[in-house]
Amino acid sequence: MTAEGSRAATASSVSFTMHGIGVSGGIAIGHAHLFAGMSAEVDHYEITGLEVIREQRRYDRAVKEVRDELSELSDSVRHGPSAELAPFVNVHRLLLDDAAFSEAPRDIIREQHCNAEWALRAQLDELLAQFGDIQDPYLKEREDDVRQVAERILGALAGTQRRIAIKPVREDASILVARDLSPADVILFRQHPFAAFVTDLGGATSHTAIIARSMNIPAIVALHHSRSFIHEDELIIIDGTQGVVIVNPDRSVLAEYRLKQNQARLERDKLKRLKSAPAATLDGTPVQLYANIELPSDVESVKASGATGVGLFRSEFLFMNRRDLPDEDEQYEAYREVVEGLKGLPVTIRTLDLGADKTVEGQQDHDPVTNPALGLRAIRYCLAEPQVFNTQLRAILRASRHGKVLILIPMLTTWNELSQALAAVKQAKEQLRDEGVKFDDYVPVGGMIEVPAAAIALPMFIRKLDFLSIGTNDLIQYTLAIDRADDKVAHLYDPLHPAVLALIAGVIRTAQQHEKPVAVCGEMAGDVELTRMLLGFGLRHFSMHPAHLLGVKQRVLMTSLPDISPIVARILRADEPEKMQALIEKLNS
Ligand code: PEP
Ligand code: MG
């Protein structure tokens, strides 16, 4: 992130820009709402005497995290265009080291046997009460500093155990400014009128970013210090395509962005005319364009996009933002709603892909040493929790009699996993049969190819599977060894890395040889710049967020397979990034 332009920390009307990674395109204009402020609710829960030390440690870790963050912030602003902000950052560092923050909340945890958030809240109330009668404007300003330091610690605590309710403060176009947001947080936004969001952390294909795209709202991640520079209620412009935030824009900039917003709206309206046109290339090759969904309520946007089915239902979102697991009946109703809504079109339900950045209550990994992306995730989690898996499989199978259902197993890596997953499907079928419950006995079972091992050793899996779906988000993460949710390595996330392309093209080729349908359901499928390349690899099934579907359809309609095939062959041989880029541009010209 860079912050251009300068301003005094208290003079909020000066305009400046910040840069991050745009993860969901479009323009939003609205007022900032800082997420996880002390105005948000903080849960209160009791802890036992034995848990006191653990809770104090959790608090200490959060304070340390904030201390590191402030040192980093202080270093980065000291020599940059916003050097005058350094003293303000230093005030926060001094406050953090004061016993009021470093000691008092620990004492409250011990004395009251309460959680760290609550102890911090109690201490903040105490401190703010002391400011009550002060008239001096300089000292009054320190009240804000105290509040902001507490908010930072709370944010750090939320990173390890999020227990804050989301409460937008205004009803109009609010723009959420947060340190970090979990996919579970973002899914909650569907019920709130946020126009866009920006975060300090996060990568382009984190699930948080993916959901922002599915909501069709602009989003920018990796701004690093947004919450230090943007104030509550300030007017901001978000350009999600360019990854730019403009704070306090002047009148001419505002007018320019309003114009851009209108032009984008017109473009979207034009694309809507393609909704019912069948997707086929210029030479007449049909292409299936499917939708990715997270919740049954997404069915409306699937229909509006003209998708010919659901290629990926991320079922784990049914399990988030709640304290219990959905039982078989509840899941069955949810799957049935989607299946009936699609009226006979295929619905591919992916079995639970929990773990990594998608966690449910009680599942979060507190051990900083382990790497959850390489841990008990997806099919590994399901096989470790056979009862949870069985309940889901039974619910999916029961829903299969209402339309066309396919089961998709995520993160397959070993032969054993596939055998056990197939055995679990068989067992669920037998149970239903014994109970006289109807289901489609021919439900196809497919595998997600998102671990390089599965892509390379595909012949080992393919004979046992009815179809494949390439999860490029994870395939890239695991091939290039970069955590897709970590903004520090986000610049290394490269869908055009020759190793990634070789794996994708290889999977498509092997699937063709075995006459098995293959789709891409990662973010690459919704990127119009990559549509022709994937078509050239032989891909005929794309699954993406409904918001991208008509743009991709337009590109398919304008593509001649014989024309692109020599360029795509050269892309697969390209060994230098510049050559690759030039070829991609040629392909799309
Ligand atoms: C993928 O990994 O590409 C994918 C589609 O699954 P998810 O993004 O949910 O991990
Ligand atoms: Mg995946």
Summarize the structure.
With 589 residues, the protein is an alpha/beta fold.
Mean model confidence by pLDDT? 87
How much of the residues is beta strand, in percent? 5-15%
Our measurement of the CA-to-CA distance between the termini, rounded to an integer number of angstroms, reads 32 Å
> How is the main sheet built?
9 strands, mixed
| Low-confidence runs | 1-12, 160-171
Total strand count, please?
Answer: 17
Task: Name the hetero compounds present.
Answer: phosphoenolpyruvate, magnesium ion
Question: How is the topology of this model organized?
Answer:
Layout: E1 3-4, E2 16-19, E3 21-24, E4 27-34, H1 52-78, H2 86-97, H3 99-102, H4 104-112, H5 116-131, H6 137-160, E5 174-178, H7 183-188, E6 194-199, H8 207-215, E7 219-221, H9 226-229, E8 235-239, E9 244-247, H10 251-271, E10 288-293, H11 299-305, E11 310-314, H12 328-341, E12 346-350, H13 378-384, H14 386-399, E13 404-409, H15 415-435, E14 445-449, H16 452-456, H17 458-462, E15 467-470, H18 472-480, H19 498-513, E16 518-520, H20 528-537, E17 541-544, H21 546-557, H22 561-573, H23 577-588
Parallel strand pairs: 4-5, 5-6, 6-7, 10-11, 10-17, 11-12, 12-13, 13-14, 14-15, 15-16, 16-17
Antiparallel strand pairs: 1-2, 2-9, 3-7, 4-8, 8-9
Helix pairs in contact: 1-2, 1-4, 1-6, 2-6, 4-5, 5-6, 11-21, 12-14, 14-15, 20-21, 20-22, 20-23, 22-23
Residues 210, 312, 314, 353, 450, 471-474, 521-522 line the site of phosphoenolpyruvate.
